[in-house]
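Entry 14. Structure prediction run on the chain below.
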Amino acid sequence: MKLTMQLKLLPTDEQADAMLRTMERFNAACDALAVVAFDNRCANKVELQKLAYHDIRRDFGLGAQMTVRAIAKVVEVYKRDKDIQPTFRPHGAIVYDQRILSWKGSDRVSIQTNDGRQIMPWVCGAYQAALLERARGQADLIYRDGMFFLYVTIDVGDVPEGDPAEYLGVDLGQKNIAADNDGETFCGAHNASLRNRHARLRRNLQRKGTKSAKRLLRKRRFKESRFASDLNHRISKSIVRKAKGTGRGIGLEDLKGIRDRITVRKSQRRAHHGWAFAQLRSFVTYKAEMQGVSLVCVDPRNTSRTCPECGCIDKRNRPTRDRFACTSCSYSGPADTTAAINIGRRAECHAAARRAA
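Output returned:
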């Protein structure tokens, strides 16, 4: 199993200028290569190298391996849609391999630029630092908000997946981002109030429309993204830890395309579209895989309307958003927990069918 780890570089001003100039030359070379690839309908790395390698080195002053990386980047992008000539941002990412990037000790890295090798320190969290010895393959140099980052591929190995008889059902929602079939909820009222505050501040800045307001909007966008990512990491970690500790698998709703399949009131649109559930699912998926916890995604239809006791499916089973009360039997309880129970049972049935097959 492979993960991507982010390292923050700490270059001097001179080193930062050298990397920026290299990025600009590299992406200008990519634009020139894109013209050659498009004109010749060439989506083969070896053939494009034959056509343009020497001209690119001469015209843009790139080193041999840097030119090869530029050719590989253009071919990878052009293959996606051969009807369009790709263009590249001046500060787009550079893909480094072992020939033009090397690690120097436990806290420094050597990076090739047009001004020669630059050795600079990097920083990251303790968790990331412990995994760095497993770095494999290439690394992407990214320039964002005036800072440089390296995105490194880490091989964490494969953990055999278990075959549990029981599953921890997890219901995803707007008020409570997640709720499991044990009755535990994750990030309810406090998170909702923070999201409402963010939305209110963003709306006020958009209405103002001044340059300073637009600058603050950009800053807030990254702040809100970090907030959501951190929260999703904490929720997914708690879910996987609980499933691992109790010897259960995890049952999740398959919400792919959910925004296209259902409609909501205008007043609910922001909440409906305002949380990164796909990101949460991806975090649960890779954390579960690292721990060897089985994960099953099930059809979410009617999970919040189905009685777990008698199987009755009825809209009236949900008299309020938070309460489930079956119209056919006497069962009642929290709506999110009830939905999670149904999800867990569907996951168990799915796993049993898979074993039988």
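The chain has a mean pLDDT of 87.
Filed with the rest of this week's runs.
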